[in-house]
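Dear V.,

Thank you for sending over the compound details. I've combined the ligand you provided, flavin-adenine dinucleotide, with the protein sequence from our construct and run the structure prediction for the complex. I'm sharing the raw inputs here so there's no ambiguity about protonation or stereochemistry in the SMILES, which I know was a concern on your side last time.
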Amino acid sequence: MTTTAFPTSLTALSSSSTCPISVTSPLICPTTAALPGLEPALLSARFITTFGRTAKTHGTHGFPAGVCPTVGAGGHISGGGYGNMIRKYGLSVDYVTDAKIVDVNGRILDRKSMGEDLFWAIGGGGGASFGVILSFKIKLVPVPPRVTVFRVEKTLEENALDMVHKWQFVAPKTSPDLFMRLMLQPVTRNTTQTVRASVVALFLGKQSDLMSLLTKEFPELGLKQDNCTEMTWIQSVMWWANNDNATVIKPEILLDRNPDSASFLKRKSDYVETEISKDGLDFLFKKLMEAGKLGLVFNPYGGKMSEVATTATPFPHRKRLFKVQHSMNWKDPGTEAESSFMEKTRSFYSYMAPFVTKNPRHTYLNYRDLDIGINSHGPNSYREAEVYGRKYFGENFDRLVKVKTAVDPENFFRDEQSIPTLPTKPASS
Ligand SMILES: Cc1cc2nc3c(=O)[nH]c(=O)nc-3n(C[C@H](O)[C@H](O)[C@H](O)COP(=O)(O)OP(=O)(O)OC[C@H]3O[C@@H](n4cnc5c(N)ncnc54)[C@H](O)[C@@H]3O)c2cc1C
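Below is the predicted structure of the protein with flavin-adenine dinucleotide bound, written out as structure tokens.
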């Protein structure tokens, strides 16, 4: 997984159709009707642009994309894309209404000329197997004037186990207006190793309504008024991007294109279908403390996600309870450090196996994980691709292969984990 942003452009339409807005890339200049007063500085490829423009021009609309607003549009949307409005609105790709792509013959195609199969494929199957995506046209979604965010932390000594166990029953089933991310991290407190469980949340509504909801549904969380802050939606985007002073700073900070400080990271992912027992969680906590550095991020599904068919886009994981991100970051350069941190991450992944989907063990495309299989593009290309392809796409892999075979039969667009063409049939005897 890299953070390189391709200059893919976004055109955004509000869902109410009363306030269309557009964001274009200076590199390709598609013909979209920009609103009067649109500053050139706001023309760019990243989601920060959509967030920035949405704040600037309306304040009542948002876009359900990356929790981290610096992700690039090209990889993010074509891999599905989710953010902290996933339970209310589903995936980023559910709000793409058109796209422009350069195909293997160098033609620029839009939705009409590429056809619904290819349009479907680049909406979750990854763009890189099919061509070069130049732009996406997206539809914005309504957001309320005030939203509420909170963070609650507990260690094992503060009964994090009960909170984490109950979270599994509440977070994927509660009001779709509420997204409660759970993060687990080994920490040292007073020289003793423990696990810190943090619930970080966005509620599309007022603090008073949130308090009533969670006092009833999730007393184990112990949410207090002091934990909560009301703000506008765009301020919440900045808050999620680790700006504690989000109610004071200007949304233009989202246009800062300086990259984050460089570090090294490895991500893996899993999907959970059945709540993990307290014994299971206890086991995982011990293994987290052994690993010493690895973090887990649980993202709840349910809500809108469970209403959309698993074949509507190539992303097949909609009916799961929650996604688990295995998250390892380190700063020391060099192969020795890399081997050690990768080894810890892979070991933990093996401990997680009993609690997650099996046959195949599902994985989120946008957390590219070369450990789950790679393609050498030799005679066994299709078989090799089935190994990672079923994990990323489930049964949608078959339709992706058909589309690939139709639009790029020579497999020009390929990488370690691209969609293969159908194997050519052996000559009949
Ligand atoms: C800090 C961080 C936070 C993240 N948070 C989230 C999150 O909240 N939600 C989420 O869903 N994901 C998240 N991700 C994952 C993110 O969605 C992926 O890394 C995604 O691939 C980023 O898009 P990109 O355009 O930067 O892709 P790149 O890394 O540039 O490319 C990824 C893949 O997409 C292909 N690609 C990129 N652009 C195009 C194009 N225009 N046409 C064809 N193919 C293209 C590339 O060839 C490559 O195969 C996060 C990643 C990071 C690093």
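A first observation: Residues 1-6, 8, 66-68, 71-72, 74-76, 78-79, 81-83, 126-128, 132-133, 366, 415 surround flavin-adenine dinucleotide (CB under 6 Å).

Warm regards,
I. M.
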